Amino acid sequence: MTRGVQVTAEPVAQVPAAPLLEALPDTVVVADGAGRIAYVNAAVAGLLGHRPADLVGRSLTVLMPERYRDGHGAGFARFRRTGEGKLVGATTQVPALHARGHEVAIDLTLSRLEPDPALGPDGGVVVAVLRDASATILLERQLEVSHYLAATLRVTAALTEAPDADVAFERLLPSLCAELGWDCATLWQPDEAAARLTYAGIWGVPGVDVAALHAAKLDLRFRRGEGLPGLTWRRQVPVVVEDLQTSPEPFGAAAARAVGFRTGVAFPVLRGDTLLGVCELFTRQLRPVPAELLEVLGNAGRQIGQFLGRLRAESEVRELADTLQRSLLPSLLPAVPGLELAAQYRPGGGSALVGGDTYDVVPLPDGRWMVLIADVCGTGAEAAAVTSLTRHTARAAAAASGDPADVLAAVHAALLHEQADGPLRFVTAACLVLEPGTAPVRGRLGVAGHPRPLLRRPEGWEEVGVVGRPLGIGDDARFESVPLTLPPGSSLVLYTDGVTEARDATGEQLGEEGLLRLLTRPGPDVAACIAETIATAVQARTAGSPYEADDLAVLALTVPHR
User: CA within 20 to 30 Å of 323's CA: 61, 248, 348, 410, which one?
Assistant: First the structure.
């Protein structure tokens, strides 16, 4: 470092330190009292492209960009008069002018020389050391970009935990402020007609009162090109206002300016070319916004937009799936004379949005009732189609015959016909046809590859029915039904294997024995309590389990005491 080197304005040959200065890698410039270059070492050629001899005797302004020259004369005169200057004694990053006309970033260190009367009034008064700052700037920018990228990744990671797009948007603003170090963030979203941007929310760091800004923005609307949000919408790239207090009105955010914010930047949240929103960031301090931050914000806006767009699409698909799932289940269980009925359905925990479990309770023309529970192999749209086919075929067959074996055979034939050369889609089912209104209630039961229903009599619970082959497998399948009697005070539970195959955190299934133990616990013997007890126990068992839960359907019937 040469800050303490004493250099005079004597010719180079008379400067004792000249050999030392000539060997330095940094450029050393000595200026006289008139602001002329009295000495410059050879390093200036590598840094700024000048020959030292061409600079001696010329004004220091030859090394300055044009925009700095007007203020230089007054500042140098004040320094010579008072011995004080803003840049003296410190290292400052400034632009210098290369001999070819372009600017070079340098680190400038200025030191004041002690006056020497022997050198006259224009003797050397200041020495400057110039060092190439490009490597430092590059490193700083790389570190800054790394910080921005890491911050936006943390923002995106925070959003991935949101269950839907609305919650993700709510989390977006605080995440941006916290990770990128801004004081306040606001969100604008297009209206339904995509004609204007409407205010959607605000968030400020602790200690920053955003109530006034919130109130000012409530009634604002921006068309494309209007205000900071509208400009961002039109350009579809980040837009920065480095000083809100002096910016032109079309570029400024008047409300933000009014409450004392100084710097603002807005970036679009895009899914392809579709605008999902505009985020504004504000700070109370003047803050330079480098091009690297704008680029990162632009990329982050597109990544966030793709993620939020996917969340919205998934939400819409879930709504459609819920509608489809409801169409495969009774909206309400009918009132059956002499019986109490209750049902529970829980979708599985996997990625499929439509399950394959279903149940149905249907009156038959002769006064009897069909009770059906079924489990379709697989999930999704294809399983939903098979479920619908199963329910409608079972209804038609029950109305025509009324025997569970005939109902199962009709569904089996329909599945074989529908599958043809397509993928195998088999169904397990339990079908019950009852004659309510009698004491005891009598009926017939058929089971095709399905868990056998559980019947509670005074002596306890037992499995009933004879299990046949699943529906849709094999042309030679035969089905049978057996008589079933439900005396007063008895209960019957039909369920799918999502109940017995529910796994806890260790992987152990509930199983038939576990279900029986659950049903023998003390408690009300009404249908609603039985169905709720089973569904709640399964939910508790699978909570926190790494094993994916299957769909669950439970249908409980009780015959009240007369």
Answer: 410
Could you write out the DSSP letters of every residue in 335-364?
A: P-TT-EEEEEEE--SSS-SS-SEEEEEEE-
**Domains of the chain from N-terminus onward:** 12-132 (3.30.450.20), 142-319 (3.30.450.40), 329-558 (3.60.40.10)
Q: For residue 234, what are the CA distances in angstroms to 225, 226, 268? A: 5, 9, 10
**Rounded CA separation 313/414 (Å):** 34
Handedness of CA 465, 469, 470, 472 (dihedral sign): negative
Q: How confident is the model over 124-159, as pLDDT tens digits? A: 578 888 988 887 776 676 666 677 767 767 766 766
φ, ψ of residue 85 to 5 degrees: the values are: -155, 155
555 within 8 A of 373, measured Cβ to Cβ: yes
Q: Are 279 and 172 in contact (CB under 8 A)?
A: yes
Q: What is the pTM of this model?
A: 0.51
Q: Which residue from 451, 455, 431 is spatially nearest to 525, judged by alpha carbons? A: 455
Cβ pair 471, 372 in contact under 8 A = no
pLDDT tens profile 361-376: 999 999 999 999 999 8
Going by C-alpha positions, the residue among 518, 428, 517 that lies closest to residue 469 is 428
Distance CA 519, CA 498 (A): 16
